[in-house]
# Entry
Amino acid sequence: MKLIRLATAALNQTPLDWSGNLRRCLEAVEQARAAGVSILCLPELALSGYGCEDAFHMAAVQRAAWRSLETLAAATEGMAVGVGLPVFHGGALFDAAALLVDGKLEGLVPKQNLAGDGLHYEPRWFKAWPAGARVLHEGVPMGDLLLVVGGVGVGFEVCEDAWVPARPGGSLSRRGADILLNPSASHFAFGKQETRRRFVAEGSRAFGVAYAYANLLGNEAGRVIYDGALLVATAGAVAAEGERFSSEEGTLVWADVDVEVNRMLRAKTASFKPELGGEGTVSVPFDWPALAASKAAAPALAAWERSPRLKEEEFTRAVSLGLRDYLRKSGCSGFVVSLSGGADSSATAALAALALGPERRKDGLLTVFQGTEHSSPATRASARTVAAELGATHVEWEVDDLVAGFTKRAEKALGRTLTWDDDDITLQNIQARVRAPGPWLLANARNALLLCTSDRSEAAVGYATMDGDTAGGLAPIAGIDKAFLLRWLEWMGTTGPEGLGAIPALASVAKLKPSPELKPGQTSEGDLMPYPVLDAIERAFVRDKRGPEETAAVVAVEFPECDSERLRTWVGKFYRLWCRNQWKRERYAPSFHLDDESLDPRGWFRFPILSAGFTAAP
# Structure
């Protein structure tokens, strides 16, 4: 029996925050040391931050990361620590994992498979390391290495390396790896944690190793949320799992793993074919501390992770964490929300309140109801009730005089009267636009962040007034569809997240018919189409990349109760509005990435601003 205490940490890092990033790494090392840990895995690019983007190419950034590495190395006495940083070598930049052992840098292992799809642009900054290549960097071995530390083989799979079919772990296993470290920067998406559990546990089983998976935590750089997922697996099973969406700067989990059990499992596997000869092996002297036999730690799975409403739980925790970090890292003191009392603005205000916590809501959340002659008593009352339940400071004012003033000026300039028959959209838009300056003024005066309240369904078809209801510095719900948002409001109003409870006013909001209330009798679905249908069309187009004809066929199967001609009309309307409104999506405030249906042209789904649309092919 050879027991080793293996740990992994999640850190809430910030790009280019040299002192803060290093401090959090050092604190994780000290926390691990206090727990008796012998080997620790820290996240990918933890020293520089993962989201440095084009700043990675700056020599100053590369030098600063190296200096941080030297400082961290000196703090690893009696331990082995894996940590990520950018390394410039041979005229190219690499996303590397460093292994620090007992105060020294012993090896650098660059990433072999770069993430270049979706919101990832790693090939823009880094080069993929060729399998089997090995060099010296500053006198330190660098490349496709297995580091044999005190007789125990330690290798790396860096984030994407574990998501590809030909994982480096297979080669490392055949060369004698006992422990694989995976420093990751793996963004949150609905349901993704189960996939991580599978590949970590399967990597442990298939490769016959103990496997440690580290991740970033929080809103690191603006758009991407990291859930701080931590996993340790051995003998094909998850032995420890960390809490996700923590509000702490870092979290740590560990498990005692028996290296000899994993070696036995490899040895008895008939298909295992060892690679002999020692190529790419670096021997490092180290005395592993003796550990007494102990019962394997059980995965620390939070109760909410088992919820039948897991998507609602994840949405609540991810977006509130994203908002909390965005507020802190931007240096703002609170939030301002233009609260109409409808679904989108109420959801936005609720998430802002959750991000602030009960003690900060009165001073940190300001909501504004801006009424016109078309505002209903129901939405006015809804806004008051929601604000009161959230503990926000709430103000009301009317904007009819502003609408009338601008309308009169325009009529004088045009030499004619504006009417609903001839100027429908014009008269709707001016009402939305005059609602923007007031909240901006309040946000500026309070050093607060104005939140945009548009959702993804409306962004898809441009059902928003640019410089009106799109005003804001951040769009926290622009990554989620309206149909889900309405279900979430009902759930929040009756049940709510585990440990946080319900906000009853939100259940009433969910029952209101969505409407921008810019003209009499208006409803959003009447202007567009039923939201479930809209979201199904969007899914077929954005996620599955289907054209109009294919989408019409798919949606017809999904909604057999709908008239086929009407469905075809809705499909045509969606594609027409999508193509016409790409310019709006290019101008939206930053939003959070939540799934593979994001419309964000700067982080997921690129589309031309000008196109001929989906006209009939020849």
About this structure: The chain has a mean pLDDT of 95. The longest strand covers residues 80-89. Residues 310-330 form the longest helix (21 residues).
